[in-house]
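Newbie here. two chains, one complex. Structure please?
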Amino acid sequence: VELRRIGTVRSPLTARKGAPRQADESAPPAVVELDAAYADALDGLRPGDAVELLTWLHEADRSVLRTRPRDDPQRPELGVFATRSPDRPNPIGLHTVQVTAVEGPVLRVAALEAIDGTPVLDLKPVLRSAR
Amino acid sequence: VELRRIGTVRSPLTARKGAPRQADESAPPAVVELDAAYADALDGLRPGDAVELLTWLHEADRSVLRTRPRDDPQRPELGVFATRSPDRPNPIGLHTVQVTAVEGPVLRVAALEAIDGTPVLDLKPVLRSAR
């Protein structure tokens, strides 16, 4: 199965080390630049919408199956599927973001923990029943 | 970017046509069979946990950029990124599931709208702040 990069995250965050783990940990605003071919596929998204942004965490270590939570090295190891660690067999990032602007193939979002250059894979509206 | 199938959905749903679109639309219980190599990566998941299950929607049409909501053909077309349609450039399925049992590399989940044979890509615990 082959993924297609549909765009790229632009962010002031440039290094995985030091990046917040989740958007609610002081993540900065960011820009989601889609390739021009996908502008049409954004039609219907509006400022204020909540979106699930799927990315490819390109710096991840895909061989990791067990890990220790970064915020508490005293805790026992867990399987990676019981954590949100980026190191996992398929390092797909899942980020709930608030859209602040849509400008052609470019989205602005309020807070995003992904680093600059992260490949973008997909966008889905957040299900109302899941909120 | 190359994805690895880590497992397979086993479900009484066998055809995309007629399958519920979301788990809250009478989706049946299902089994998530991971390859034995990934059993360790489930360590820490327990019955009652809410998990984001990521799948590959293998029957999707990856060329679709605009679509009409299935439940209301009167509505105008939307870009696929403003919908949850499986037809999209990277047809990654995102399913919030409740774990009912963990048996080695096999998870049982309470309700899942994915069809039998759907490849599994990843599992992540639901963020508490997102619920």
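Moderator note: The beta strands of chain B are 7-10, 30-34, 50-56, 66-67, 78-79, 92-103, 106-109, 119-125. The longest strand of chain B covers residues 92-103. Thread marked as resolved.
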